[in-house]
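TL;DR need structure tokens for one chain.
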Amino acid sequence: MTLGHEMGSGAPCLKCKDKCEGFELHFWRKICRNCKCGLEEHEVAGNTEEDRKVGKLFEDTKYTGLIAKLKTDGIPMYKRNVMIMTSPVAAKKDVSISTVTYEWAPPVPQKALAMRYMEMLPKEMQPVAGSEGAQYRKKQLAKQLPAHDQDPTKCHELSPNEVKQMEQFVKKYKDEVLGVGDIKLPDEVLPKDKEQVNVSTSAKLAPAAVATVGEKAAAQKGSRYSCHHCKLNMQEGDPAVYAERAGYDKLWHPACFVCFICNELLVDLIYFWKDEKLFCGRHYCDSEKPRCAGCDELIFSNEYTQAEGQNWHLKHFCCFDCDCILAGEIYVMVDNKPICKPCYVKTHAVICQGCQNAVDPEMQRVTYNNYNWHAAPECFQCSCCSKCLVGQKFMPVEGMLFCSVECKKKMKT
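>> reply
TL;DR here they are.
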């Protein structure tokens, strides 16, 4: 079994910066032991592991044309289409060449079509090497297509029965819902693929029978085609994204080819089609199987824990800070993560303004304007006369409490 503890080891965290000592994979969670961020938040060099993952996804599918098997070990590798664009740049004495490399581009024969597709994406999502867009693509590859959603060897301690169930699950979605979007010009699709579009749908795409000559001309310029997502018309000459499993009567603007759940751009046009909707890999799997909130893996066992609206492997319902088992123990949810009582008091508890000690999660407290007190006479009291203010009116002044104007004046003097 390979959990990839060496992958990305020591990589700096883009989110935590210097606060993280470098990526160190937790032994069963899919996060860094040092900063608790995921691998996708770290600056991991190279694309080899991601290309292996996507290659594994396309293995034994109709998309084997997008992969190549390494001669050394036979591992399928994603043949990612890298596009390099060059253009002359005028200089004082001579002309220099500007080069822009896209770490991924749709595999279409015409480079101009691929370039127009890229231009229709938001700039922050265009995967230009070294840019914010390239980082966005890497992050979405990690989020949308987790290796542990398709490869049992990337999971932690699956039983033989769970491995078998997972293999059957993966085969089923590869056969029935997995797809890769096609980039085409709408006017070139319908005549060629009209046999795939039913008559009633074709009628909807055609211009109205009763129309002026001008209206018909406008319809011929592209307004016949509307995006399945935003419902706005396609512009003449602009490429559209098609999903074979959805049928060629549906098309999307490049920036509208997004997951129904997370609304993120479907990375490298890889989609999962279910219930007439587009899903990314993660959210399709979530719609089919419970996912452990501890290790992020799909749950294939019959027994698991449900708590706080989330699912957990029995052994993974643990404190997010120290990994102690929480079954039967007191815990507090912090940022949607369960924390045991000792860790909460040590690291997360608020400090009482009166006694300067941590406020136990089981004790009552008073909170006002980011200040906290134990709801006890010795802590929540007048800063001047020490009168207990629990259940009484009070005057707050910069973390101090007063029972009356007179006490407030005394403290000032």
